[in-house]
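Q: Hi! First time doing this. I have a protein sequence and I read that you can turn it into a structure. Is that right? Here it is:
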Amino acid sequence: MIPTRHLALLFLATLCSLRLPAQTEPNPTPPNPWTFNASISGYLVPQGQSYASPTFTADHNTLHLEARYNYEAQRTASLWVGYNWSWGKKFVLDATPMIGGVFGNVDGVAPGLEFTVTYKKLQLYSANEYIFDTGASAHNFFYTWTQLTYSPRKWFTVGYVVQRTRAYHTPLDIQRGLLVGFTRKKLSFTTQFFNIGETDPTVVLSLGYSF
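A: Yes, that's right. Below is the predicted 3D structure, encoded as structure tokens:
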């Protein structure tokens, strides 16, 4: 007859063997800390100046990387590195100071700042940079794209937009317009209408994908 203590030890060993697989299961794969966004904007500009401008961004915690083409000027590229910073809960400020190199039809160095202020369904977004042209200081230029939007639904946005650019030429130094945007999952589509009632209008069609 098997002693009682031997039965108890056998019972404990059986329990341990049954629990062992659960204890040795591998940990779930941690989420990817990188986030990416690829977008392209088509500029339908009067007088044969239409063009496309692609942009790619990559973010890892506080690190921000960005590449642009036809943004500061046509047939011109720029590469950027920045620092992501965020503050607030209900009233949220996200800011990214950056430094970039510009090369192509325009060559230079550009400090920049992107920031977003969000409060409930309202959002103010602004992308700014100042290009120091290494060829001629007379070509130094301040660029801005600033928009104020309201999102009555998560998938629908309307707003007002202002830009200053040298990528194409119009009689207006500062262009103003309206925008309407739609979002579905990771895909977004926005249309901007500039210079309505002031000069020949410019339409910008933007498509973005986040992953």
